[in-house]
């Protein structure tokens, strides 16, 4: 075994991953519904090849050999070896037949989810979701090492070393802090008017505006594209192919615009990973929490910045072709930061967003640690929304069917959004020591922000763990207080509260 042979094997694994990524993108952006069963067969076949190579003899040989000959690996080889060994240890005991079965099930589940959404009927998705849960539960014992709970095993796949114990403590602090801010807004604040948010702005007008904005922020359309889908996502096929998707509402421009800004944050991360890692598992985000920190930095930190919008507002008015010519900037900006409890996570304002994540986290804990029945999930979902946000879904589309994640068996992913939110606020605090963020966002050149993020986060890909990245970039481990302080500052200003 030598490094060249090892990296060649990793390249072949990555080529299969790229093929599956393109098929998954197609599945969510244009595949005919009738093709679901055929596509499921293709997906499971490719995943079988992919899984077999990931735990096959060459990888096993490389793990054993370089475990005693690390000096023969370059920097790239060593970073790749660390990740490959971790993944091998996680997957090596999972029966290949079970892994293939799980892959095929998620392909079918996505089609069932789309049908259930159309009919607003969880019953049409219940069987597919039950199957995803069953197969995930079957795989957990093969993947479990020293985790205290089954759900910890799932969390660890998206955020290394994250546990229920840590999240319970962090989420408790954040939940209580947000509830306190909401209470003060209700008692002392003056809510901004929001009627302008429903004015019609066509998809074409929105696309013209936001395409230039994300280009200015640093997303490279020469290495990417923007398509429509039911549930927005970004996918990094390779270093020069990073695709974004969104959905539009012509009577709620904020949904599409902020959705694209969010996904562009993912895209910019993938586009700015050091190309030397291409073809290895290092050429991806350090974790889903770190990935979400980059998308939410775009959406929430930049997207909440007054100077940013003051600079962009004239162009926004021009793109809307007269629709907002009678609106002052102050009226426009304040309307964007109006906070109101809502039913849909991806349409939630930046203050209540984390509460949506905590609801999903608590339900997933119940599924995998407490054995809750699948048929009871819609009721549990609705009850939690009423408890935390004071609103109750009128149908399953507004409730449990809104997210794509469970159709893909992405259990344990949701907490990454909240962690990313907290990471983003902490990164802002550190960035402001080096970059005059408000001044940059008021200028014609946003590159100092992108370059800072590339220097401290993007370039490393998965060569560093999340806690290492955050510690190196900010000088401390995760501190949720930065998020609470940030939200208090933004919303107290808009709601005219002097604190």
From TrEMBL:
PROSITE patterns: PEPTIDASE_M32. It holds the Pfam family Peptidase_M32. Zn(2+) binds at residues 262, 266, 292. It catalyses: Release of a C-terminal amino acid with broad specificity, except for -Pro. One of its GO terms (biological process) is proteolysis. SUPFAM superfamilies: Metalloproteases ('zincins'), catalytic domain. Its cofactor is Zn(2+). It is an enzyme of class 3 (hydrolase). Its EC number is 3.4.17.19. Keywords: Carboxypeptidase, Hydrolase, Metal-binding, Metalloprotease, Protease, Zinc. Binds 1 zinc ion per subunit. GO terms for molecular function: metal ion binding; metallocarboxypeptidase activity. Signal peptide: none annotated. The active site is at residue 263. InterPro entries: Peptidase_M32_Taq. Belongs to the peptidase M32 family. Broad specificity carboxypetidase that releases amino acids sequentially from the C-terminus, including neutral, aromatic, polar and basic residues. This is Metal-dependent carboxypeptidase. It comes from Candidatus Enterococcus testudinis.
């Amino acid at each position: 075994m030598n490094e060249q042979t090892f990296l060649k094997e990793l390249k072949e694994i990555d080529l299969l991953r790229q093929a599956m990524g393109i098929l998954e993108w197609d599945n969510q952006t244009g595949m005919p519904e009738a093709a679901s069963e055929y596509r499921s067969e293709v997906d499971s076949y490719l995943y079988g090849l992919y899984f077999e190579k990931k735990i096959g003899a060459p990888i096993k040989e490389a793990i054993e050999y370089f475990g005693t000959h690390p000096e023969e690996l370059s920097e790239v080889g060593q970073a790749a070896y660390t990740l490959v060994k971790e993944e091998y240890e996680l997957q090596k005991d999972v029966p290949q037949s079970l892994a293939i079965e799980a892959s095929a099930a998620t392909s079918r589940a996505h089609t069932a989810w789309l049908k259930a959404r159309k009919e607003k009927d969880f019953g049409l998705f219940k069987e597919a979701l039950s199957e995803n849960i069953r197969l995930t539960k079957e795989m957990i014992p093969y993947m479990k090492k020293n985790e205290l709970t089954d759900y910890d095993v799932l969390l660890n796949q998206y955020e290394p070393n994250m546990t229920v114990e840590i999240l319970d403590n962090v989420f408790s602090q954040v939940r209580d802090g947000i509830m306190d801010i909401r209470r003060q807004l209700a008692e002392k604040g003056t809510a901004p008017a929001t009627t302008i948010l429903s004015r019609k702005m066509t998809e074409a007008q929105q696309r013209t505006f936001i395409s230039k904005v994300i280009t200015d922020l640093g997303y490279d359309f020469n290495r990417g594209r923007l398509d429509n889908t039911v549930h927005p996502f970004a996918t990094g096929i390779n270093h020069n192919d990073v695709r974004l998707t969104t959905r539009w509402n012509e009577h709620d421009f904020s949904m599409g615009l902020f959705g694209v800004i969010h996904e562009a944050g993912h895209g910019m991360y993938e586009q700015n990973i050091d190309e030397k890692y291409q073809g290895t598992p290092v050429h991806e985000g350090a974790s889903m929490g770190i990935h979400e920190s980059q998308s939410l930095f775009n959406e929430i930190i930049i997207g909440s910045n007054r100077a940013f919008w003051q600079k962009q507002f004239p162009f926004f008015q021009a793109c809307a072709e007269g629709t907002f010519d009678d609106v002052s900037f102050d009226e426009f900006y304040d309307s964007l930061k109006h906070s109101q409890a809502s039913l849909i996570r991806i349409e939630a304002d930046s203050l209540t967003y984390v509460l949506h994540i905590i609801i999903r986290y608590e339900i997933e804990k119940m599924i995998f640690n407490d054995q809750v029945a699948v048929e009871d999930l819609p009721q549990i979902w609705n009850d939690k929304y009423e408890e935390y946000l004071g609103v109750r879904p009128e149908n399953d589309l507004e409730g449990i069917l809104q997210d794509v994640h469970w159709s893909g068996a992405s259990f344990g992913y949701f907490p990454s959004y909240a962690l990313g939110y907290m990471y983003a606020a902490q990164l802002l605090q550190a960035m402001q020591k080096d970059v005059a963020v408000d001044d940059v966002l008021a200028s014609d050149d946003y590159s100092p922000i992108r370059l800072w993020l590339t220097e401290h986060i993007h370039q490393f890909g998965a060569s560093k763990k999340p806690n290492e990245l955050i510690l190196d970039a900010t000088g401390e481990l995760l501190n949720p207080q930065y998020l609470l302080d940030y939200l208090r500052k933004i919303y107290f200003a808009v709601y005219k509260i002097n604190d």
